[in-house]
Specification:
By secondary structure, the chain is of the alpha/beta class. The chain has 2 domains: 50 residues, no CATH class; 353 residues, TIM Barrel. It contains 15 helices and 11 strands. The strands form 2 sheets. Strands 1-2-3-4-5-6-7-10 form an 8-stranded parallel barrel, surrounded by 5 helices. Strands 9-8-11 form a 3-stranded antiparallel β-sheet, with no helix packed on it. Helix 1 packs across helix 11 and helix 4 crosses helix 15. It starts with 11 loop residues before the first helix and ends in a 6-residue tail after the last helix.
């Protein structure tokens, strides 16, 4: 962690001016008790700032759709988990409604999993998702759909470029129509393609060693093949029902390594919405956070940096597309031991119990919605093997053994105090 002073990043006054530009002076202050906020006496709290903050808390002039990812919807009790999470959220701000749900189709069941046929469990997922739309017809189902199966013997990027697999996405579209989701779904094809994760379509590395474009040392060609497959899949979906929405869904930001994310963007005419997965993660050494300055500086870097939040906001406005943050959350890297105690990873790259992340994000969603953009968000309310994002304590049998909000009490309080989405 660099020393404060010259060369150590933006000054406190600069960060305050930046927060004020967002209209967030009072929001940043209000999300923590005054006694625990080292900037409590230094954040502008003018009448104008207070009015802006209250506008965010009341939903402001911009309304959008908002919800969660709560784990796979393969059983009816997952629906009950969503309802409990919504009750928890609405207890902090009754104006908040559950009008968005994030879900994933599997890549480990071959093409059957992707086209949602031939597998009772996957088809049940689609059927279960209809319950949220029946509860509120405004609900958007954010459905992350693999571009390829995990078994790469079943598909190649080159084959996708030639359109060999379009018929699988035609089958998926027909399944969505059959269960009544065609007018409510936003299909996030090949999500997080700019990551170096284990997804078969990852373009910022080749963790599986099975991507022929990387084996040949030509990641740019891999990007071209990915885009061609994405366009082909989107065309196949819309050929069945034009109401099916398609979303280009990268992770926010770019550190300059790997191919240019611009090379991964599908054809404009195939994209209905730009969506970014945005977590409170920092790989530049600011975390673990040493107070509010690190939290705000990290947010600013991820917002204003290359292919950050601002880039996708402006692109959505310029191209008159929808905008979403289908996954977001505060973050801790680590794992759970046999007693379900969380063990922090080293180095720590998550912001931990950051009470400012959700107010900052909420303000951006409200601003986009107020400008007339169709917006939705889903908080990733779940803990995985190597990371924790859970706020509510309703994340599966093992996670129910954890005390509610045990890892993120301040962030959870800030999140619940805000109005998310539409009334």
């Amino acid at each position: 962690m660099p020393e404060r002073g010259a060369g150590a990043g933006p000054s406190r006054a600069e960060l305050l001016r930046w927060a004020a530009w967002l209209g967030l002076g009072a929001v940043v202050c209000a999300s923590l008790p005054a006694s625990s906020d080292p900037w409590a006496s230094g954040i502008p709290d003018s009448a104008g700032d207070a009015q802006d903050a209250q506008g965010v808390r009341d939903g402001g002039p911009g309304l959008w759709r908002s919800g969660f990812y709560r784990g796979a919807n393969t059983s009816p009790d997952r629906y009950d988990d969503y309802q409990r999470a919504q009750q928890w959220r609405a207890s902090g701000n009754p104006a908040t409604r559950l009008t968005a749900v994030r879900e994933f189709l599997p890549s480990d069941l071959g093409w059957d999993g992707i086209r949602a046929t031939g597998s009772a469990g996957v088809h049940t997922t689609l059927v279960n998702l209809t319950r949220y739309v029946e509860d509120d017809p405004r609900t958007v189902v954010s459905l992350a759909v693999p571009l390829f199966p995990a078994d790469r013997s079943l598909a190649t990027l080159a084959g996708g470029r030639r359109g060999q697999y379009a018929h699988h996405f035609t089958r998926l579209a027909k399944a969505l129509v059959d269960v009544g989701l065609a007018g409510s779904v936003d299909v996030c094809l090949g999500w997080e393609m700019n990551s170096s994760s284990s997804v078969p379509w990852a373009l910022n590395g080749d963790p599986t060693g099975q991507n022929p474009a990387y084996s040949a040392g030509n990641p740019e060609e891999g990007c071209a093949q990915y885009v061609a497959q994405w366009n082909s899949a989107a065309d196949a979906l819309k050929s069945v029902d034009s109401r099916i929405s398609t979303c280009h869904n990268p992770i926010s930001g770019w550190d300059g390594t790997g191919p240019d994310p611009e090379l991964m963007v599908p054809a404009e005419e195939c994209v209905d919405r730009y969506g970014i997965d945005h977590y409170d993660v920092d790989f530049t050494g600011r975390y673990p956070a040493d107070g509010v300055e690190d939290w705000l500086e990290s947010w600013r870097a991820r917002y204003e940096g290359a292919f950050g939040v601002r880039y996708w906001e402006e692109r959505a406005r310029r191209e008159r597309k929808g905008f979403c943050v289908p996954e977001h959350g505060v973050f801790r890297y680590g794992s759970y031991d046999s007693s379900f105690d969380f063990v922090e990873a080293s180095p720590q790259r998550g912001g931990g119990d950051n009470p400012h992340f959700f107010p900052l994000l909420n303000a951006r969603l409200a601003a986009m919605a107020a400008a007339g953009t169709d917006v939705y968000d889903c908080q990733f309310n779940y803990n995985e093997r190597s990371a924790a994002c859970l706020l509510t304590g309703f994340g599966g049998a093992a996670q129910r053994n954890r005390e509610e909000n045990a890892l993120f009490p301040r962030a959870a309080s800030a999140y619940r105090s805000l109005r998310w989405g539409s009334a």
